[in-house]
Write a structure and sequence with these properties.
Two copies of one chain form a homodimer. Helix content of chain A is 29%, strand content 35%. The first copy, chain A, is α/β, with parallel strands linked by helices. In chain A, the strands form three sheets. Chain A has a six-stranded mixed β-sheet with strand order 5-4-8-9-10-11, sandwiched between helices.
């Protein structure tokens, strides 16, 4: 998606340690018009696949998933990272390892929100090691729903997550796929 | 907003302890078409007030704030609850007390995202004790921006937050304002 790639080139910030900061338009402040177009593009890519629900993880996936859900006119679910007093009853849960924070955490979805009649599209802002998406794939499997695939805004193509998911037979669409990055330069596929 | 009130009446679940669960359409699974209409209604209420940015707190405010930002064609910012490796540089921060969880937490916004030329609309899913919104008001004050007001989907009008904010001279718009609720019944203003 050229518009997103151009935005990353002009407004993204490279920090040491392969960190790409996109907080001025994608995951802290969000460019609403750009996000609407991202939603439209995800809807276009998965047109005709019968998606009934979009699934993501709080917090930075919510905006992308809502934009996709709006374009597809289907509900969006965000998995919660912590059990709270607002989640109850039977839940599907999976453990996710965060390389960013060096910890494991649980993701949870109330069981009555997903079932075998659903076709699910997993959406997130970033794909790097793929741990978050693998956790969501487990939740989809638990529910008995069909998985249409995954869509992410930015894939760090030099990390293993995307290849691992594709080798599992999962369709993965990345709107901007990074081949390599340094402290000064970013190269897309 | 009649559409939201009807949805709460049909799909909301009342639990002991004044808990209204709306996780099937507002803050766990989200009805994308309803959320688009909520965004349009917030935009209509604040039309002509010169809003340049919508501000909320992760996680359950993000969808509402994005929908409003899309309708108003302005960026949306979500304050982060925890400092992470993805937030850096100068930040505005405030302490928020959570009555739901019985703890205090910090909310933070990178300082370069808000400044004195901005007019900010604060958006959230719920307004009860008003602690989260007061934290955001402090962040707006720190930035020197003008505050247009606040917009929430559901106000628990029998709790003090809304009245306190209004007595501070802040415009507060609630799309559904609850007068009272019990374990079996919910009454709107």
């Amino acid at each position: 998606m050229d518009l997103l790639i151009e935005k990353i080139k002009t407004d993204g910030k490279l920090l040491p340690g392969n960190i790409l900061k996109v907080g001025s338009f994608l995951n802290h402040m969000i460019d609403s018009d750009l996000m609407a177009k991202i939603g439209d593009e995800i809807a276009r890519l998965y047109e005709g696949t019968g998606v009934t629900k979009v699934l993501t993880i709080e917090a930075s996936g919510i905006a992308v998933a809502l934009a996709a859900g709006m374009s597809m006119h289907v509900p969006m679910i965000f998995a919660k990272k912590h059990a709270t007093s607002n989640i109850s009853g039977d839940i599907y849960t999976a453990i996710v390892h965060s390389y960013t924070h060096g910890t494991d955490y649980h993701v949870a979805v109330e069981a009555d929100l997903l079932n075998k009649d659903d076709t699910v599209l997993i959406v997130d802002d970033f794909l790097a090691n793929g741990q978050a998406i693998k956790g969501l794939v487990k939740i989809v499997e638990m529910s008995g729903a069909r998985l249409a695939g995954a869509a992410v805004c930015i894939e760090k193509g030099f990390q293993k997550g995307g290849d691992e998911l594709r080798s599992m037979g999962i369709r993965v669409e990345s709107l901007a796929r990074i081949k390599s990055m340094s402290d000064t330069e970013i190269i897309f596929y």
